[in-house]
Amino acid sequence: MTPANSLSPSSSLSEKIDWLAERHWRFGREDRFEELLTDIFNVDDSGAITSDPKRDPLINETSGIMLLAGSGNGKSTLLGRTLERATVLDERTKKSPTGNTLKITVPPSATVKSIAEKIAELTGYEEIDPKAKVDEAWSIARHRMRKFGIKLLVIDEAHHLLRTGPGRDIPGAVQALKHLLQGDGSVAVILSGVPKLREIILQDPETDGRYFKFELDMIEAGSQDAERLSRCIAKSAKELGLFLDPDDKLSERLIFAEHGRVGRTIRLAKETMRQALIKGRDNLRLEDAEASFAKRYGSRSMSPFSPSAWNVVQADLEAAGWVQ
After folding, report:
1. Topology (CATH) of 219-319
2. pLDDT in tens, 157-184
């Protein structure tokens, strides 16, 4: 087998596809986010984070991070990669029952109580009594985290916890996010969600003030992130044996097509390369990007991957009020 971090001229199609799927394209935001972890965890003499949450010595409270980005902008991927690289933080799973980190992805139907029930479940608690009150459920959850040495709680798609509707308790949910950081059983917390998450939490300045903020911006044409994306695409194409014509302006077209959303732009770039590999080509063509785009959003008479010069295509699409 070809090593996961390199390919050879004899690499098979399946090896190339697997290699491409595993590639992580770094944009610098990973380093900035990892640096923020030093604000919620203590560090050792080398400056690396430990697994011990940093506490305010006066009130014994921990801190958290709010990771904010629109849908498709790569927040879940950034979060996952960061946890992989932070070797002192080990996610607790059935395969790793001694981990010090819990990760929960909040479904749209979640309630404040259901999150406490999920924490209890992940720590091996059979079932919280359905008749238990919310405060009782959270008391069990906090006890379980303390008992099993949980240091970090990651709540992905946290904005779902703050949805309105019957049976919803937004003030109670916000208070729960604050209480996670208070007292002897408190842990470090990372909340990941869309910008609406902070808008709601801002209703309680005390809770908002306990969380550092990290916002993922869109990729803008001509920016450093756009240049990094272009280099990532070029390097990956070269490794895969795919010629990339710089005059096609593929990265610019991809950014425009996905409105600069990082996660979706990378997804479309990789799907375009995969399309070319499956077709047995030795070059990346705009028609590969067009086909991949059409699978996601439907075909149309003109798209960012139309064969004309990019400046002409872009001007025509902008004049027509481009939407996906």
Report:
1. Helicase, Ruva Protein; domain 3 (1.10.8)
2. 999 999 887 777 899 999 999 999 998 8
